[in-house]
Input
Amino acid sequence: MLVFNNLYLQAMKNNILRIATAALLLVGCAPTQEVSWWNLPKAGHERMLDFQRGALIVDPHGSALKNMVGELLYVSPDGVVTVENKEGNIATLRPREYYPYKLHIARPSATTAGWSATTAPLLVFTHGWFVALTAPLSWVTSGMNLYSERHAYGLYMNELSIEQIRAQCRFPMGVPEEYTPGAQTSRQEY
Amino acid sequence: MKNLITYTALLLFLSGCTIWQHPTLTRKAHTDLDLAGTEQLLHAQEEVTLQGYYADGSSVLFQPDWRIINDSTIYGSVSFLNALGKPSTQSYETRELSIEGIELWRTSRRLNSKERAVFGGTILMASVDIGVGIACLINPKTCFGSCPTFYQNEDDHLFLSDAEGFTNAILPTLEHRDIDALPNVMMPGEERITMKNEALETHNINEVVLMAVPKKPGSEVMHTVDDRFLRVVPGPAVRVSLDGEPLEQMSDRDGVEWFELANSQDLAAKRQLQITFDADQDKQYGIKLVYRQTLMSTFLFYGTLEMMGGDYGRRMAIMNHSDAQKHWLLEGGIMQHLGPIEIKNTRGATLGAFEETGPIAMNTQLLPLDVVDGALTLELTQGLWRIDALEIVEITEEVQPTQHRVTRVVRDQIDRPEEVSQLRDTEEHLVSMPGDSRALHFEPISAPSHVFLASKGFYLEWTRTEWNDPGRPKELRSMLLRPRQYLRDQAPIYKAYEAEMEAKFWDARIQQPILTSHEK
Output
């Protein structure tokens, strides 16, 4: 029979917290993929004024974790859009293909905090046995935020004219020859 | 514990609720710098940046302090970006910049507090910003219609139309006869008019008749506001002034029109022009007015249709059988506040009104005056009317025009005898589709004549793609219930539209007719 004493639990808690903190910090420093929700400005943020990235195209009928089609790079005069997906590949979509999709131009201030769902169990060290209540609540709110983020500030592409789509492109005049898709860059926080 | 769970669950539920606000686009592309300026004007209380793109993808980015100096220069704090969107200069510099070489403009602004959701939430943004105004600018065909247009010169197009038929007959039960004076004297052997459909409409024409009165030297025959025909001779010189300043543009029918821009706070604001002339009490005078409406009328009309959205067809079908709704459309609602051009005497009593609608063809009409003392007031809605000429004429006699029916219809260089029958049979309608152009030949006249075109029918607006959505029923209800306030609310939106379209439309910078057949 294992016997846990308070000192042992205290030490274990501290180690776990150190590891979790280090993990979070490392996640924050690591280069992200080029296409990411993080590349969108927060709603209402002043960086919306000089934001240079393209809007994100999302498939509203896809699963919550795999519904991102890519970043809008360019739209041709006949409505064909060029997108870069999370894997760094460039693809083109004809109007009929992207009409069911949505275009997201901003992310809500309350972000997904997907991390909060994974770190919810750590609440045991602060909430004690109440974690049985607060951890599920945290998962619920994280889920709601995730839902909100995936649905906020979206425009249905079938309601947009070519000129309106053009305004959301990363390269309204065309993808430059020197552009390298999928390049590793540090995350831009807006 | 149970209550704690209940309240916690309620709190979580409420935290997922969002505030739904009127959706707008925050980044917009413009091919014309003036439209970017309009965006800045529309959001004068917010910061709007401007980015101009060159053909190679490089760009210049202006801070919100940018100002358009003239057609070719912008002033403001600017930085330069390469084709990848990376800054090529270290910081912003304040300077003037020539816009030469810039092919595309993009304006950006932040979401304001009303547009941001609480806790993120779900906000779906519509594609059309602030309703009809910008939609009209992006696609003028959305907000334009013309009913049948008539030309004495077959080579003329929309901007030189001589007459617009039955402008208000937008439903079958609103069909009526409309008489328009044609500007040129018609010679025997030239009894021919071109009729076109230059809008996204289906025209149903029941009748077209040419009415003629032989010309007499030194006189003119005019059509009155109550459909009589009077022969007139020039009267005394008239002086027209506004706020004490003389208006010279109305002295002759020369294509130089007097008009004012709309009031920026109230589309129904009125203006009074003072008219004075030396009146002989033994003579009967009339006011001859050459006028037309501005784009405000079509802006408001198509705005109403746009608010109906995809429900347009159903609503129009109901209105077709509702006298109350038709009365509201033509004389109630916002129309009662906009009103016609009214002529009043010095005691403020209304002597009559000019109320032909439509922004395309010039209307030449006569309002007979009873005994007057040489001082009149012309009251009209600011920004709704354009006046080319105002004259005082002396009425000499009433005349009856001869009626000349259609004898031949030519479309696509082919004679259409069946269409002649349709225009002669009061039970039939000739259907004209967008892009149709017909030469109508009439029974001959015996002498050079002043001619008038009587047309009867109705037309149906085609639903625009931009209207194929739920519309804005709340705004429509507001217009129906509080039309006066609606006209105040629409003022800033119309001002932005007016600033752009007045210049483009009336300066004929659009070289081709806006509308071609069967285009979206």
In short: Chain B is about 20% helix and 35% strand. Chain B touches chain A through 51 residues (CB under 8 Å).
